[in-house]
Amino acid sequence: MISIGVDCEEIERFHKILEDRRHLERILTPNEIEYCLSKADPKKHLAARFCAKEAMIKALSYHKVNAALENIEILNDANGVPRVRVNLDAANDLVLQVSLSHCNTIAFAQAIVYDK
Ligand SMILES: CC(C)(COP(=O)(O)OP(=O)(O)OC[C@H]1O[C@@H](n2cnc3c(N)ncnc32)[C@H](O)[C@@H]1OP(=O)(O)O)[C@@H](O)C(=O)NCCC(=O)NCCS
Questions:
Q1: How far apart are CA 82 and CA 52, in angstroms?
Q2: What is the DSSP string of 15-79?
Q3: Mean pLDDT score, 15-41
Q4: CB within 8 Å of 110: residues ≥ 6 apart
Q5: How many CB atoms lie within 10 A of CB 90?
Q6: Ligand 1 test: best mutation among 100, 108, 112, most atoms within 8 Å of CB?
Q7: Does the CB atom of residue 81 touch ligand 1 within 6 A?
Q8: Residues forming beta bridges with residue 6, ordered by sequence position
């Protein structure tokens, strides 16, 4: 089975979250926070990661995997390609991919999940 999920968010609302460390740590892992904060406009990358996690949660639900934000990590490889890790046994037999995008106002992500 192949499943998809999408999500979009207004970037501006993530400005406040960046200033609230506890809220930030509920959404992102330490490595994700480090990545976002290394960028000129961190809230874009934060919003995109939030979208990607929501999109992945949607896609996983078709496979009867109930994931939460804290189960999912999205880190970019050396070429900038976002790679997803889900720390749930139920996801071990699944291929997980996301694609992220952000302009000045909107972040968007699409997830795809299929059986290995
Ligand atoms: C990689 C590329 C497609 C990103 O597109 P973009 O419009 O600049 O930026 P978007 O906001 O849509 O996407 C950014 C996200 O793409 C993802 N990304 C970056 N490099 C990627 C790659 N090689 N493959 C897949 N995804 C990639 C990242 O997730 C990034 O967000 P993040 O840093 O928060 O993780 C673009 O930079 C590129 O290389 N385009 C090729 C054409 C080109 O060279 N154009 C410029 C000269 S005309």
A1: 10
A2: HHHHT-HHHHHHHS-HHHHHHHHTSSSHHHHHHHHHHHHHHHHHHHHTTT----GGGEEEEE-TT
A3: 96
A4: 4, 5, 6, 55, 98, 99
A5: 14
A6: 100
A7: yes
A8: 110
| Residue extents of the structural domains in the chain | 2-115
In this prediction, residues 39-50 reach a mean pLDDT of: 98
pTM exceeding 0.90:
yes
* CATH, domain range 2-115: 3.90.470.20
Please, which pLDDT band fits residue 91 given cuts at 50, 70 and 90?
very high
Tell me which residue has its CA closest to atom 32 in ligand 1: 45
- Which ligand 1 atom lies nearest to the CA of residue 45? 34
